[in-house]
Amino acid sequence: MIKNINVTELKPEQIQQIQAIIAVFKAQNQLNKSETKIDMIEYLLENPIEVDNLEFMKREEIYDRT
Question: Tens digit of pLDDT for each residue in 36-62?
């Protein structure tokens, strides 16, 4: 979401504060994006899947297993 902010009547210090707040939000968004990605190879190495009778598992069974 992109918003336009009218800064014509703001003091330079206020503009700098707004820029700092925007930078914090951008950094937080980048952090949130990187946290949601899962390295499946690393995850599967730490949590191997047990296989019975060499049957294939469905994607849902792999992701929903406990």
Answer: 666 777 777 777 777 666 666 677 777
The answer to whether the pTM exceeds 0.85 is: no
Q: Concatenate the DSSP letters of all residues of 12-47 into one string.
A: HHHHHHHHHHHHHHHHHHHHHHHHH---HHHHHHHS
Residues 6+ apart with CB under 8 A from 57: 49, 51
Give, as one character, the DSSP assignment of residue 62.
Answer: H
In angstroms and rounded to an integer, the radius of gyration of the C-alpha atoms of the chain is 23
